[in-house]
# Entry
Amino acid sequence: MAAPLSGCVNSLQSSISLLGSSISILDSGVNDFPRLAKVLHTTRHFELLPESHLQAAQASLLASITPELSSLLNRVETHLDKLARREQALIAKYELQEGRLSSNRNSGAGPSKSRSAQSRGQLGRVEGSYGSDEDDEEEDELEQGREQLRLKQMRQKKERLSYAVERLTLQAQQKERQLRMSMAAQ
# Structure
């Protein structure tokens, strides 16, 4: 009985040695598997998209940016309009102040001259009270001086009134511009 079992034992031992050598071969082949998996693993640095996806993304980005951009542009335009109106108001105010200053300069020089003319006329009356022909001539001169003074005062008054009219027309034009700007903004 031992003879037939010895053949089974031998065949079992040869199977075990064959399995051992197969395991060692597989072990050496599988041993490098994690490194190979890492090497063979592909990473996409750039993802390729179809053109339709790209166009859809551009359209959605444009749709989200357009309203915001238009509101910002409207705000900039209204701010620029306000600045333009303010600039015009400052220019008008400057012109108004400049006109007032020139009017004050002109009227400031006028009264001093008229006062000196009046004082000269009074001196003429006092000095000229002694002679009748000289009195008539001096009275004529005094009358001419008064006429010239009145004429000068009337010219100054005319300048002041024309300046006031000009100022009022400028203010009216400015208010019309502001009204047009506000109507256009609405």
Remarks:
- Confidence is low (pLDDT under 50) at residues 110-120, 122-129.
- The CA atoms of residues 54 and 60 lie 10 Å apart.
- The helical segments are 2-30, 33-40, 51-127, 132-185.
- The chain is about 90% helix and 0% strand.
